[in-house]
């Protein structure tokens, strides 16, 4: 089991005197105060590196902390260790004969699960175990209509990328509240391929990360394949064989890894009846990677498609099928593109890595992954202005909670009004 020190709980009888030491003399910041009514306790969290100090102040005479103070005076009350799987941790402890106060997890503050270990088993220290609230992405399959086009946001399971890389020059103190990082500094993301159905048939835009990744890489990206694209297609009564056209926004593994699959020791097209539409210049870049983008362009994701003769290359911005048009943005990769869906006077845009998660609707929030960030900035400024003015529905491939929404401006700040 892996455990991380979350915080140290200190019972205080006189909060002002405690603050005079921890805040004023030591110079630490009180970052949050929380009232726990059920325990008759007010908890003041003091930042101390990766962990925190929790000053516990009783709010009633019958509070557990009040009784503790009476018996022992102020001092160390408990330590809290964070674990990934509390249920498993308790089972392991039980198997080792450890005496538990809580035999099973119970709800704690902020949606976390907690359980206490008896001090008799922990050498006189009261130990609390804590599991953070689940921050999994929304994996529901959601549909809407844009004129005559049926638009479905699918999913290819959850995954995680480094939070710092996702927000470029934006400091962690600003992004961590919107995208809480895990113990490996990764933030939760979605992989949402887009299905467009019309008279032309069924077009898939991007196809997730797929199933070819070795265990080590799957672990790095927290790729959970227990709920993936085949299941999402199944939920709307389809299989990979029902897809007629597969379109790529760009050829990075988290967008096009699902284009090929391993079968009988060979790599084959994952969608057996589909033509694959790939921008020729993106193919050129992807098949000639350099040191900066080599980890993102995995040759096994696309080279087998050409060998199988199922790729149709094209140059420049154009309609792929009626109502579906690609527009190059550059920025993220030189040939990265967004996909416009236009029908019945309405417009939706699948923005891929131009606006990966909602936070990126702010102009300076640009990924560290982008090869040409100033290009991203220039395109995004124009694009968002137009999206607000013309009420374009924005389709988000990576946001963990919002699959589609309208960008609005309220008192000078941009917000996203969720639709799907
Ligand atoms: Zn991406």
What tags apply to this protein structure?
single chain; 420 residues; alpha+beta; 8-stranded mixed beta sheet; 7-stranded mixed beta sheet; 26 strands; 33% strand; elongated; binds zinc ion
Q: Could you characterize the architecture of this molecule?
A:
It is elongated and about 80 Å long. With 420 residues, the chain is an alpha+beta fold. The strands form 5 sheets. The protein has an 8-stranded mixed sheet with strand order 2-3-4-1-5-8-7-6. The two termini are 38 Å apart. Helix content is 20%, strand content 33%. The protein has 11 helices and 26 strands. The longest helix has 17 residues, at 373-389. It binds zinc ion. Residues 252, 254-255, 353, 398 line the site of zinc ion.
Topology:
Layout: E1 3-11, H1 15-25, E2 30-36, E3 41-48, E4 51-58, H2 64-72, E5 75-83, H3 86-95, E6 106-107, E7 113-117, E8 127-131, E9 142-146, E10 149-153, E11 158-162, H4 163-167, H5 172-175, E12 186-190, E13 194-198, E14 201-205, H6 215-220, H7 229-235, E15 245-247, H8 253-256, E16 260-263, E17 266-269, E18 275-279, H9 280-286, H10 303-307, E19 311-314, E20 318-321, E21 324-328, E22 337-343, E23 346-350, H11 373-389, E24 393-395, E25 404-410, E26 413-418
Parallel strand pairs: 1-4, 5-8, 14-15, 15-18, 18-19, 23-24
Antiparallel strand pairs: 1-5, 2-3, 3-4, 6-7, 7-8, 9-10, 10-13, 11-12, 13-14, 16-17, 20-21, 21-22, 22-23, 24-25, 25-26
Bound molecules: zinc ion.
Zinc ion (ZN) binds next to helix 8.
């Amino acid at each position: 089991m892996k455990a991380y020190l979350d915080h140290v709980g200190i019972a205080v009888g006189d909060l002002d005197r405690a603050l005079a030491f921890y805040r004023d003399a030591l110079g630490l910041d009180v970052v949050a105060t929380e009232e726990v009514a059920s325990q008759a306790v007010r908890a003041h969290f003091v930042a101390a590196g990766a962990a925190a100090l929790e000053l516990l102040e009783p709010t009633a005479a019958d509070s557990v902390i009040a009784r503790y103070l009476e018996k022992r005076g102020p001092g160390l009350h408990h330590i809290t260790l964070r674990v990934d799987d509390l249920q498993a941790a308790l089972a392991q402890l039980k198997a080792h004969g450890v005496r538990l106060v809580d035999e099973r997890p119970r709800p704690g503050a902020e949606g976390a699960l907690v359980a206490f270990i008896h001090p008799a088993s922990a050498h006189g220290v009261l130990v609390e175990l804590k599991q953070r609230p689940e921050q999994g992405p929304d994996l529901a399959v959601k549909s809407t209509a844009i004129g005559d086009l049926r638009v479905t946001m699918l999913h290819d399971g959850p995954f995680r990328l480094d939070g710092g890389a996702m927000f470029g020059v934006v400091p962690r103190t600003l992004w961590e509240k919107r995208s809480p990082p895990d113990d490996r500094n990764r933030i939760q993301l979605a992989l949402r391929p887009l299905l467009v159905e019309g008279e032309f048939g069924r077009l898939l835009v991007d196809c997730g990360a797929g199933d070819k990744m070795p265990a080590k890489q799957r672990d790095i990206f927290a790729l959970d394949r227990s709920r993936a694209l085949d299941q999402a297609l199944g939920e709307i009564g389809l299989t990979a064989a029902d897809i007629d056209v597969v379109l790529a926004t760009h050829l990075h593994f988290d967008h096009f890894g699902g284009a090929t699959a391993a079968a009988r020791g060979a790599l084959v097209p994952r969608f057996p009846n589909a033509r694959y539409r790939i921008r020729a210049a993106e193919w050129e870049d992807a098949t000639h990677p350099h040191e900066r983008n080599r980890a993102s362009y995995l040759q096994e994701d696309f080279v087998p498609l050409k060998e199988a003769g199922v790729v149709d290359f094209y140059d420049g911005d154009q309609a792929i099928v009626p109502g579906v048009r690609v527009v190059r943005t550059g920025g993220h990769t030189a040939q990265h593109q967004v996909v416009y869906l236009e029908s019945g006077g309405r417009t939706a845009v699948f923005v891929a890595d131009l606006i990966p998660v909602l936070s990126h609707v702010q102009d300076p929030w640009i990924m560290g992954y982008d090869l040409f960030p100033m290009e991203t900035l220039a395109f995004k400024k124009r694009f968002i202005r137009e999206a607000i003015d013309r009420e374009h529905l924005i389709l988000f491939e990576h946001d963990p909670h919002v699959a589609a929404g309208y960008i609005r401006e309220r008192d000078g700040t941009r917000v996203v009004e969720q639709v799907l």
